[in-house]
Amino acid sequence: MSAVASSPRDANLRPMREADLDAVMRIEERAYPFPWTRGIMRDCLQAGYAMWVQEARDDGIVGYGVLSIAVGEAHVLNLCTAPGHEGRGLGQRMLQALLRIARGGGAQRVFLEVRPSNPRAIALYERSGFNEIGRRPRYYPAADHGREDAIVMAMELLPDDLGRMPPL
């Protein structure tokens, strides 16, 4: 790993491959107290979900995103920047890439869930045009066997949105 911080310009976006799963799982397990399993990641790949990684020249994979698209709607299922690489615009760049993919796949609306205890992610989504549309009570597992609500957020992908999105 490089001591130099990865910036969005230093990280290439590309589709995730099965060979990436080890690196992605290392990030997932460090980033979340209740990570997805390798089986879930593999199932998403096999189902054909849009799965992308950010790969930095000196640091390897530093982030990834998972998006499902169906019947005019998309759902951001997972968006993660590797611990130690946050706050550099990598998450914003990945989210914008997923939104472009959603629009290209015919989605007119994008949904996601986020923990209320994750203000950094909430701020990213709000800056990107998402709005809270509801809550899912006790959606996420939490410490001490409790549960945490999910904030449900959505945004409409209007025809002129692509022109306003920053380039990848």
Essential attributes:
168 residues, alpha+beta, Aminopeptidase, 7-stranded mixed beta sheet, 5 helices, 35% strand, globular
Approximate shape: globular
Which CATH class is shown? Alpha Beta
Q: Which strand order do you get reading across the main beta sheet?
A: 1-2-3-4-5-7-6
Element-by-element helix/strand order: EHHEEEHEHEEH
Characterize the main sheet. 7 strands, mixed
How much helicity do the residues have? 25-40%
Low-confidence stretches: 1-5
The number of helical segments is: 5
Q: For the residues shown, what is the average pLDDT?
A: 90
Distance N terminus to C terminus? 24 Å
Classify the beta-strand content into a percent band: 35-45%
CATH architecture: 3-Layer(aba) Sandwich
Number of domain units = 1
Q: Which class best fits the helix and strand makeup?
A: alpha+beta
Number of strands: 7
CATH H-tier superfamily: Gcn5-related N-acetyltransferase (GNAT)
